[in-house]
């Protein structure tokens, strides 16, 4: 079986609008706060306890509330898509730890490097984005075709 795009359920308009909203949110954060919208950095900063500015937790907390709360706003207008997880709890925990390790090793995540870094023409972000996209491609191929 070859993966393909389900053209009946493909929604380029909502994908475009979602991408535009991500770009607008990232732009607002960098313009008004001078901060990069890298989710792993924002969450990691919430764990920082020493030498923190006065509003350190406020903007991070509001950003994360907005990030998670947007799903509930979406639900006011559209039904949530059906979610099926075919992995065990142990697999999900290991996957989460690997993602966390990868974001620390790569000094950022897909939002920081792929959205914000590439838009700033950062060569380091280009290399990071190529690395995690290639790694994801290899892992998906192995799980779908080789294992």
List the helices and strands and how they pair.
Layout: H1 12-33, H2 39-46, H3 56-77, H4 89-105, H5 110-119, H6 123-146
Distance N to C terminus: 14 Å
Largest sheet: none
Strand percentage: under 5%
| Alpha-carbon Rg, integer | 18 Å
User: Ranges with pLDDT <50 over ≥5 residues?
Assistant: none
| Pattern of helices and strands | HHHHHH
Helix-residue proportion: over 70%
Mean pLDDT: 85
SS content category: mainly alpha
Overview of the structural elements:
The chain contains 6 helices and no strands. It is mainly alpha-helical and 147 residues long. It has one domain (12-146). Helix 2 packs across helix 3 and helix 5 packs across helix 6. The protein is globular and about 50 Å long. The two termini are 14 Å apart.
């Amino acid at each position: 079986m070859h993966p393909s795009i389900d053209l009946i359920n493909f929604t380029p308009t909502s994908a475009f609008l979602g991408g535009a909203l991500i770009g607008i949110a990232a732009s607002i954060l960098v313009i008004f706060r001078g901060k990069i919208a890298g989710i792993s950095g924002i969450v990691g900063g919430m764990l920082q306890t020493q030498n923190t500015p006065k509003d350190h937790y406020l903007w991070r907390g509001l950003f994360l509330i907005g990030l998670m709360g947007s799903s509930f706003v979406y639900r006011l207008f559209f039904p949530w898509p059906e979610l099926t997880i075919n992995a065990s709890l142990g697999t999900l925990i290991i996957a989460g730890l690997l993602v966390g390790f990868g974001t620390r090793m790569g000094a950022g995540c897909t939002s920081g490097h792929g959205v914000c870094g590439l838009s700033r023409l950062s060569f380091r972000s280009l290399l990071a984005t190529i690395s995690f996209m290639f790694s994801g491609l290899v892992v998906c191929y192995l799980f779908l075709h080789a294992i």
